[in-house]
Design goal:
The protein has 469 residues and is of the alpha+beta class. The chain is built from nine helices and 23 strands.
């Protein structure tokens, strides 16, 4: 063992016995430090300004007894509470920290809410440990750190542990409602909030919240808390609305002979979500109604058999959390044919004709086969100064000349379309405006040309005198 060097006299080896003897000599001083007056422990202390969450202005640090160890007193809980308050926890959080939950947490007998968020709670405890060391200006015993970790876990779990989803409740506009505070007793001391705002105590009947004459503004998230600990007891997401009235349903074929569509709406709003269900029958056969990609209250049905004498029946039902309603219509294929209005209606004056206007338009682009299923048109026009329309029906063509216009008056012109054989007229097209041709006014001379000087004297007989140059 040439590599080992025996201990010298200057470097004595302390045996286990000597170390124990040294610890026994130091015990009285340590016990004296633990028996400090709790009032001295709880005295205000100055802390660094950089410590986050610390409330300033609590006073200067009092002098410590000479030789006193700045460790925890025999009962460390009051000092733990002070440190928690100094690092910024709210007063109601600190009130929750009693000896009983701390002891339970320290022994591992914690509630499920603490266990589910223990990892996050311990992360929150780390800055508290640092704050405690800074306040005490000395290392913190590990046993006290464990107590502090458990205490912080209790508070954090009660405030930040995942809560159950709020109970969703729908109530009718104008009605009265009573919201219970979960399973709390009727006489439990609770506080209610809506969307984070405290509600007046006179709205409470025991622990229950009573709302009269519900309005739309009553909708919101209601929460019930224990008055002392601010522990969340119950949440209700309240929606105020109305049951649906009978829906308005209509069907139309603007793409004949390809198919038709049906659309629906409610006559009055319900203020809450509604669910619609549409059923289309051709005789006894169920037809597919494809949803419109752009309009949510519309679906499309393709014709399976043209010129069928079997009627179609379309039924729609609507329901929400407060009620249900339904309606249905029955029709023949040809009765719902209605083209879209003609497009690109243009009116122009006719040169040198002060009473004529030339009108042109195009067949609606949604009409799939104007050759096989031709359209006829209906034109109406009037001067802006009059309210009475004049009408012209055209069996074919996409142009017409108005021959009885008032000269110099602006006209408004619209066109409608209809299948030659079946269906109804379309809505009127976008209006076109035009004014008949008018002749440009001729410029008349208003100043009489005066005769020259010689003509004037010739007419009057007065001699003319010429000056010599």
């Amino acid at each position: 063992m040439g590599g080992l060097k025996p201990p010298s006299a200057e470097e004595p080896v302390q045996s286990g016995r000597r170390r124990r003897q040294r610890r026994r000599r130091l015990q009285p001083a340590r016990r004296g430090a633990r028996q400090r007056d709790p009032a001295a422990v709880l005295a205000p202390r100055s802390v660094p300004r950089s410590l986050p969450g610390v409330v300033e202005g609590r006073g200067a640090e009092p002098p410590r007894p000479e030789g006193a160890n700045p460790a925890f007193s025999h009962h460390p809980i009051p000092l733990v509470l002070e440190v928690l308050e100094r690092v910024g926890l709210e007063k109601e959080d600190i009130d929750v920290l009693s000896v009983r939950p701390v002891v339970k947490s320290f022994s591992g007998m914690v509630s499920d809410s603490v266990s589910s968020s223990l990892a996050m709670s311990l992360m929150v405890s780390l800055p508290v440990f640092l704050a405690l060391s800074l306040v005490m200006a000395a290392p913190v015993p590990w046993a006290c750190c464990a107590v502090l970790a458990a205490a912080t876990a209790v508070v954090y779990a009660q405030r930040h542990s995942p809560q159950e989803a709020p109970h969703v409740q729908y109530e009718r506009l104008g009605s009265d409602v009573t919201l219970p505070c979960g399973t709390a007793n009727w006489d439990a001391a609770v506080t209610w909030r809506v969307n984070g705002t405290d509600l007046a105590p006179d709205l409470l009947n025991g622990s229950q919240l009573v709302l009269h004459g519900l309005e739309l503004g009553h909708s919101g998230l209601y929460a019930c808390f224990h008055r002392d600990s601010w522990h969340l007891r119950h949440q209700v997401l309240l929606h105020v609305g109305l049951p649906p009235r009978e829906p308005v349903l209509s069907c139309r074929s603007n793409t004949y002979p390809k198919g038709f569509y049906c659309s629906w709406h409610l006559p009055t709003p319900t203020y809450i979500p509604n669910t619609f269900n549409v059923t289309v029958l051709h005789g006894s056969k169920i037809m597919v109604c494809e949803k419109d990609p752009a309009l949510k209250n519309r679906c499309h049905i393709r014709y399976m058999h043209l010129f069928s004498t079997i009627k179609y029946k379309v039924s729609i039902s609507v329901s929400n959390a407060l009620g249900h309603n339904a309606t249905a219509i029955t029709f023949d294929e040809f009765t719902i044919v209605k083209p879209d209005p003609p497009e690109n209606v243009v009116a122009r004056p006719v040169p040198s004709n002060p009473r004529r206007l030339e009108v042109t338009w195009q067949t609606p682009s949604t009409w799939p086969d104007p050759e096989s299923f031709p359209l006829k048109f209906f034109l109406r026009y009037r001067p802006l100064i009059l309210d009475q329309w004049q009408h012209v029906e055209l069996s074919d063509g996409t142009a017409h000349t108005i021959t009885d216009a008032y000269a110099g008056k602006e006209y408004i012109i619209q066109v409608a379309a209809k299948d030659n054989e079946i269906g109804t007229w379309s809505d009127w097209s976008v209006a076109a405006h035009a004014t008949p041709w008018t002749e440009e006014p001729r410029h008349l001379t208003t100043e009489a040309q005066a005769p020259d000087h010689d003509q004037h004297h010739q007419l009057t007989g007065t001699p003319t005198h010429h000056e010599d140059l």
